[in-house]
């Protein structure tokens, strides 16, 4: 047994165990943490497959960003431990396993059937489609670097100046992203920009000028609802209310002084 | 431009996917992008009192983009140029859609200020996010690739989700935004799934390449791959959500009613027209071989959409909600035009008939922009004056504001399709296209629906002209003037009348706009 297979077995087993933990644990924080482990192990499997870019994205986006978001939401909403596995509702306990088995059968069929090919096998043919180009880029870039020779630097196969070298997909992907896919890439960055602007506009505190008229408890982070007693939001609202009252008193005092 | 090109090629030896000329072809989009970014920045710098000037900046941007689009049209009226490795296409279809979206943007800016100031909606961000939304729609209109379609639709949709929730002190606004957002991301997921299947089946995301691949697969094997049909169904569901077609319309009434009224006006026309642009781009350019399948689905959905929209609109007492259902019904009328793409008596590729179908969709979308924003504009006027949005609040409007009542009547007559307004010609072109494609049954259902819709539109007219104003509403009356709103309503009324009495120039432009699509279809089928 090669070392690679051994490493794969370790990663795969850990991924399965931690995924089971995600379902079985009662405390949502434990579930989230075991999800981190599952993601990390799957990233390991990706590296074994030679897809180090996807592995890096897996760690950065899923383990880094999304999991932290989960934990933040749990912290803010103070999620309590859920019901144990044998006391789930019918939808979860009855429908879930059926769906799981269906997916399992699907995966087994895909693996075992040799006739399963997308696009009649065209997708890997070196014709002019984007998929074929990308496929060629990915295949060659694992052990081959793209160096500019006679023609312009493209990933179109050996004829266009690809010489043996060692650079991963990341370079090939980056080049495609900033040349062929520049337009959607830039638009995607605009989408992130408006998401940031929108989040700030909707979630920011009311401006000082409308504080005087609005009911004090309807402001703050909670989008208009009265926050629960003892929660962070309630504390924040209280702080703001007392501040604005103090400000008003100070104003009155200055008015009186002027008189 | 060649000068810039030279510098770029010296500095960067790697493959360039665009040249300096490519930037000229996206000039209108670029101007809107710069305007949108400027609006946020200037909003921070300007003192609070002079922030009214932001509306002028936004208008300047839109008018500049319109002028740039017009310049590109007059420089070369038969242009069909793909840029950014096939992502963006500059042709007359793009141009006509840009005109629709920019006019939507202009009218959306004009009807916003008074209403938003009264409700403490931050104006700078409102204008800016609206401009980003218009940018997304323009990208959809000019897309030549599934990826551009996707990012464009997402840019416009996410901007509108945010705008829906802009009235932070209003619970309805938050509720509408959340419903719209959750259902919207669901539809987006389905749309992307459909795109993934299309990519898997054809090996490309480029619409023309997809069309070529499907055509060649179709010619080599007698039975089509069912996978591509599955992809088409998923795409139709995704687009159906964006245009609010039944049964994917459930978000519409709540989102329209909850959103601030100027935003309801904007989102009832802009994203809908963008959805239709995407639908036509993907279905006509990418899947012309499957047109027998998708036109019949769209025809059935059109019947459901028209009927449900009109029947439910009758029962509404809130004018805002009534306009929401009426906008669903109008989606149905426009879908009749899309369904007319294929002759139901056997397949023919009569380009003139197909052009009638697509150009009727374009011109209906343009007319719909004016009449629907007009109706919402008067609603905003009424809400500014006395706050309510019920049918009863329109009682006696003709007495205390005869001009507003006249404008409202004009918009409602146009929505109902009564001559000599623009709405009549919109419906006329759509139904004529359907009859030419032997879809008589669809035309009859459409005409019956128009008759039903006249009932609830005229109900408001009757309230304005024949019912007396209640004492309570008289006491609530607070006269407010708004230069921008008046300007918008004047533009709208003139446009409705001009499009109703002399539609030829607009129709000519719409026919030009539909032409490039058929060149693509012909090229995909291997014809010269």
Helices, strands, pairings?
The complex is a heterodimer of chains A (259) and B (528).
Chain A lengths: L2 H22 L3 H21 L3 H26 L12 H23 L17 H14 E3 L15 E3 L4 H10 L3 H22 L4 H4 L20 H27 L1
Antiparallel strand pairs in A: 1-2
Chain B lengths: L1 H10 L8 H6 L1 H19 L7 H23 L5 E3 L4 E3 L1 H19 L2 H6 L4 H19 L4 H19 L6 H32 L4 H14 L5 H17 L9 H7 L2 H26 L4 H24 L4 H21 L11 H36 L10 H4 L1 H15 L5 H15 L3 H27 L4 H6 L6 H19 L2 H22 L3
Antiparallel strand pairs in B: 1-2
Helix pairs in contact in B: 3-4, 3-7, 4-5, 4-7, 5-7, 5-13, 5-16, 5-23, 7-8, 7-13, 8-9, 8-13, 9-11, 9-12, 10-13, 10-23, 11-13, 12-13, 12-15, 13-15, 13-16, 13-23, 14-15, 14-20, 15-16, 15-19, 15-20, 16-18, 16-19, 16-22, 16-23, 18-20, 18-22, 19-20, 19-22
Describe, in plain words, how this protein is organized in 3D.
The complex is a heterodimer of chains A (259) and B (528). By secondary structure, chain A is an all-alpha fold. Chain A has a two-stranded antiparallel sheet with strand order 1-2. The termini of chain A are far apart. In chain B, 77% of the residues lie in helices and 1% in strands. In chain B, strands 1-2 form a two-stranded antiparallel sheet. By secondary structure, chain B is mainly α. Chain B has 23 helices and two strands. Chains A and B meet through helix 5 and helix 7 of A and helix 7, helix 8, helix 9 and helix 10 of B.
Fraction in beta strands of chain A: under 5%
Describe the strand arrangement of the main beta sheet of chain B, using strand numbers: 1-2
| Sequence of strands across the biggest β-sheet of chain A | 1-2
Largest sheet of chain A: 2 strands, antiparallel
